[in-house]
Amino acid sequence: MEQKTTLAYLRTQPSPVLPPPVFAGGALQWVRANMLAGPGSALFTLAGLLFVVWVTPGLVRYLFIDAVWSSPDGAACRAPGAGACWSFIARKLDFFLYASYPREMVWRVNLCMAVGAVLAVWLLWPGAARKGLGALLFFVIYPVACLLALHGSDALGLPTAPTDLWGGIFLSLIVATVGIVMSLPGGVLLALGRRSRLPIVRFFATVFIEFVRGVPFITVLFMANTMLPLFVPASWSPDRLLRPLIGVSLFASAYMAEIVRAGLQAVPKGQTEGAQALGLGYWRMMGLIILPQALTVVIPGIVGIFIGLFKDTTLVAVVGISDFLRTVETARLDPAWAGPTISTTGYIFAAAFYWIFCFGMSRYSLMMERRLSAGRKR
Amino acid sequence: MKHLLIAGGFAAFLATGAAAGTLDSVKQKGFLACGSNTGLAGFGLPDDKGVWAGLDVDFCRGVAAAIFDDPTKVKFIPLTAKDRFTALQSGEVDVLARNGTWTQSREAELGLNFGAINYFDGQGFMTRKKNNISSALELNGASVCVQQGTTTELNLADFFRTNNMKYEGIAFATADEALKAYDTGRCDAFTTDVSQLYSERLKLVNPEDTIVLPEVISKEPLAPAVRQGDSQWFNVIRWTHFAMLNAEELGVTKANVDEMTKSQAPDVRRLLGVEGDFGKGLGLSKDWAYRIVKHVGNYGEVFDRTVGENSKLQIKRGLNNLWSKGGLQYAPPVR
User: Fold this and answer.
1) A269: which residues sit within 8 A by CB, 6+ positions away?
2) Does B17 lie at the interface with A, CB-CB under 8 angstroms?
3) Domains (ranges, CATH) in chain A?
4) Which of A227, A377, B56, B202 is the right S-S partner for A338, CB 3.0 to 4.6 Å?
5) 3-state SS assignment for residue B9
6) Rounded to a whole number, what is the distance in Å from the CA of B128 to chain A's nearest CA?
7) How many interchain CB pairs under 8 A, A with B?
8) Could you confirm whether domain B2-120+221-325 is CATH 1.10.10.10?
9) What's the gap in Å between the CA of A74 and the closest CA on chain B?
10) Which among A92, A164, A335 has the least Cβ separation from residue B77?
């Protein structure tokens, strides 16, 4: 049969490209899928929008438009209708940072914080070179050098700044860092101890974990600070700052141990058997095979503990240590600044500070989680 | 309370053995451990630079000046109301200068001794000027903002009952909330200790529209405390206050103290250690009082600087004036 050369439906030209349907992609589609998926969703969206509209103008006015940005004392902030008193924060910033630390020595604090930040970035930066050296510096040399520098020593010709003068943001960071740095190795050891086949090790690890987890943190701080000196001679009782530092470390370790143990239980038994079949000893098996997998699984839990710990550092204030939040509470009592907006401003500042740190930790952990679980994701 | 008592008994037992010679131990360690408030305007509060200042703080500086001739040799240990007595009992602090009220039970049961009253406080009222009230006795029918669960609340009830007046007490969990309620007009008056009324008043939107009424309806003698069983240390503490009072009475000030050592007045000569050796019995040097005045000032100067005329609080001397000027501050003579 002969084919017709001019079929009615045969196109010789490609049809013009049409724009995609309005709701198939882009912002509108996102809005429809996420905000207007059904009547319930639409209602929530509406309520949310109303809430934002209701809150935002007042908030913006209070925080920015009506806020007092510069004034020598509280007079301008007391004016009727004045918003947040940022000049109070600016004026007291030094106090928030260093509390009573002698002002002529604060360069030591700044130096320590700067070095600490550099080392922390080095260690936390994925793929940074020579992390082993960084870890040695950060975990061994830095704490000793920094504590020595902060405290001062007559032998080195640095005048001493006793720990009762320490306080403010730098102290909060010290407490949090000590807790975070001590808790991970402590927690791993305790978790391994609790799963150990040696009964004595297992017994002590279990008792420690259960005891510490069963007692409120404040009680321990209070015991350490007010009862301990009753039982030991004055010369034996440790430094007032050292006590909460030890308390924080022990506490965080016990909580961390249970998280790590959860991770260990999530690693299939075959991994252990495989490692043993390769002839690896206990520590190499743990270090090379089991722990890397276990810790990856529980990153959210670990970071949850870190965040909780960071915020719990405010509890050291109950034993008379002037942490950041305590300095805010002290500063707001200053009669030169007394006013109706001072407390609110101080607490907003404190909340922003803690939020930035905690949100940062949370984001970092999400990123690490994605990187580390790349092998297991489909 | 029970814990405090147990701790107190235990501490008293320990204190008799361990704390013999607080003065010697202070001299040995080279600083005075002073239990201070965690923050109370005018009494103990770090300034912008973190340096403690206030009436109680200056008292501790006075003690340090008397012992070391250096008012900076003090460690201020901020203590909350809960742990202040335990800290003193356990030897964590050498003296507790923390606007603590001297009461019978504290002295008798907690194993403490209160030195000399360095501030006569008491509960008072503040109200808006436009109410045209000049006395607390005119508060009949008023609504009063007060902090919940404090002796303040009880004193308030007593005061109105004794005077056959009606009132509406509006209690709040914290002093801040109570003040806010007063500021927004929920109550006609606000009550707390007078020393605090002045600093709370400054937090109002318009502090000038509010006055502090003259009546004081309770006794709150604030005094530094020490552990029982160490009379020498107890003497050092209370004579530090007496030295500051005597200095004010004799007109010896921080500025003129060097000049005054040349004075012929026997009282002044004895106080400043030019004549006789009155520091010896206290375990201090001859010029102990001179050191206090030189470094810290006399009581009137300290009062004006921290809570009085030259401070933000503007508290009047009132009961805290010298006995010779109608107040209650009276010191035995140095002789």
Assistant:
1) none
2) no
3) 182-372 (1.10.3720.10)
4) B202
5) helix
6) 16
7) 106
8) no
9) 10
10) A164
Using the beta-carbon criterion (under 8 Å), do B312 and A92 form an inter-chain contact? no
CA distance B302 to chain A (A): 17
Question: Among positive and negative, which fits the CA dihedral A261, A267, A269, A271?
Answer: negative
Q: Distance between terminal CA atoms of chain A?
A: 53
Nearest beta carbon to residue B205 from set A98, A334, A340: A340
Rounded to the nearest angstrom, the minimum Cα separation between A87 and chain B is 13
Q: Edge-to-edge strand order for the sheet containing B112-114?
A: B74-79, B32-37, B95-96, B225-227, B112-114
d(CA B88, CA B4): 12
What is the architecture of the domain spanning B123-218?
A: 3-Layer(aba) Sandwich (3.40)
pLDDT in tens, chain A (378 residues): 555 556 677 778 888 888 877 666 677 788 888 888 888 999 999 999 999 999 999 999 999 998 988 888 878 888 878 889 999 999 999 999 999 899 988 999 999 999 999 999 998 888 888 888 988 888 889 988 988 889 888 777 788 888 888 999 999 999 999 998 889 999 999 999 999 999 999 999 999 999 999 998 888 888 777 777 777 776 666 788 888 888 889 889 999 999 999 999 999 999 999 999 999 999 999 999 999 999 988 988 999 999 999 998 998 888 888 899 999 999 988 888 888 889 899 999 999 999 999 999 999 989 988 888 776 665
The residue of chain B nearest to residue A232, with distances taken between CA atoms, is B90
Which chain A residue is nearest to residue B199, measuring alpha carbons? A335
Is pTM, for the whole model, over 0.90? no
> Looking at the partner chain, which of B39, B49, B91 has a beta carbon nearest the beta carbon of A229?
B91
B140 close contact with A: CB closer than 8 A? no
Measured between beta carbons, the chain B residues lying within 8 angstroms of A319 are 83
C-alpha span between A259 and A38 (Å, rounded): 39
What's the gap in Å between the CA of A309 and the closest CA on chain B? 23
pLDDT digits (tens, 9 = 90+) for B275-292: 989 999 999 999 999 999
Domain limits, chain B: 2-120+221-325, 123-218
The two structure tokens encoding residue B145:
């903002």
CA atoms of B224 and B233, how far apart (whole Å): 12
